Amino acid sequence: MYIRPFDPWKSKLCTCPFKYTLNPYTGCDHACVYCYITSYIPKAFKVRTKEGLLPSLERELRKFDKRFIIAMSYSSDPYPTVEEKLGVTRKVLELFKRYDVRCLLLTKSNIFERDIDILSELRCAVGITVTTVDERKASLLEPNAPSPRDRIKALKKAKKAGIPVYARIDPIIPFYTWEDFEKTLKALNFVSHITVSTLKLRPDIGARMRAKFPELMRKLEPLYTERYEGYYYLKRDLRFTILQRARELIERRGITFGSCREGYYSYPTCDGSHLVP
Ligand code: SF4
Q: Which domain holds residue 38?
């Protein structure tokens, strides 16, 4: 089965409405330093296609309950570099169109611009993740992902085509991307919903972060004192101060606010799925 219920771990901190998820590829070559899939996907930064994906998916879609949403993707990006050449995700979207599937798309690429023609005919909402609009910081954090500027440009085009659009500012990294939060927010002013989340650390993420940002990690690590479900979290007072401020700044712009795996407020949904028609 390629379509799976989201959150098979049933995390207590996950507030997502029930939905399904589909990863058109295994692995993701954006190679974000804070990526969590490296803890459960071997060779996570190497993109592989899935054998027999399209015929299997078509069989699954014939029986799929259309009330539910399929989110793409939470354990990869639906638009890795190779998608430009292979067009697997485009073919998946064609199947979604044929079977009238409701879809929540999330990417860190601008390649989806190519698919705006199909996306505008689907029941879907499209979102991008932008951790910072500082291009230098973004290239250190997300070395192989297209630039935030290009992602934002593509999302504006999607909005112009009538597609509901949202964004994730995720993760917020104190002393680093948090410094640019207002600028990032200003650049995303045109979206309907923003989901935020603070950086969570696991051993693999910590090791990559320490190798790349030794100074920053010297300041950050002593603040990661709380542990939930295998992740270290920023201590609660600091985390909630950041989330409260982010919420004020987002809502002040007339954008709805969501938070992801924080045990904090979201409205109307944490993940933007209320935008899917
Ligand atoms: S885009 Fe997402 S899945 Fe891909 S490397 Fe970055 S964090 Fe991991």
A: 4-272
